[in-house]
Amino acid sequence: MERPPGMMQLLKKSSVLIFIIVLFHAVGYVGFALPATRNLFEDIVPFHLLLMLGIIVLSHREVDNRFWSFYLIIYFAGYVAEWIGVHTGALFGYYAYGSTLGVKVLNIPLMIGVNWFLLVYSTGVLMQRAKLKNRWLRIVYGALLMMVLDVLIEPVAIQFDYWHWRFDAIPVYNYVCWFFVSMFMLFVFENFGFKKQSWVGPALLITQLVFFAALNIYPL
């Protein structure tokens, strides 16, 4: 069956955006892994996150007030969760942010809200496309996937000065909190009821899984 012109344009647009995601993560992997370029690539992490945010915005169908409302809710929920964690240890445990994520307000990087949005949106869209009819299964499986990603992120984050744990050990409590915070945010995603989105968001999540797994297993 011949696809309508509008559908073809969407597919081409999605393909280009996915290519950019994969390309920049591949370059980032080499940049992080090589000592000669490591400091430079640590410095541009905030710009990388902003680029990924722009890609997600471009890929989303109907970027309207509902989309931006969702973005703001997740951004501030993520920022507040991290503030509670850093200043009280009640969430995630006792840790402090380094310089890699950029400018901080109240000791929390402004980019952390962007990062939470990217993860939640990408996971939410992947679960949306997974053909799971029960939304609670989508929420739980999505939260488990985000927790797996955090397991991969943590050693890399410590090595590249994203953040550091007070006692030089990653507490199991961190992963428990990640799971429940992720569940809450994915519940918010579900309640916004976005139309079925393209594969760009899931491609970002899968690329990040591969990226952090590669830095753990093959650090060059």
UniProtKB/TrEMBL annotation:
The chain crosses the membrane at residues 16-34, 40-58, 70-96, 108-127, 139-160, 172-192, 199-218. Keywords: Membrane, Transmembrane, Transmembrane helix. The keyword Membrane applies. It comes from the Bacteria. This is Carotenoid biosynthesis protein. The lineage of its organism: Bacteria, Pseudomonadati, Bacteroidota, Sphingobacteriia, Sphingobacteriales.
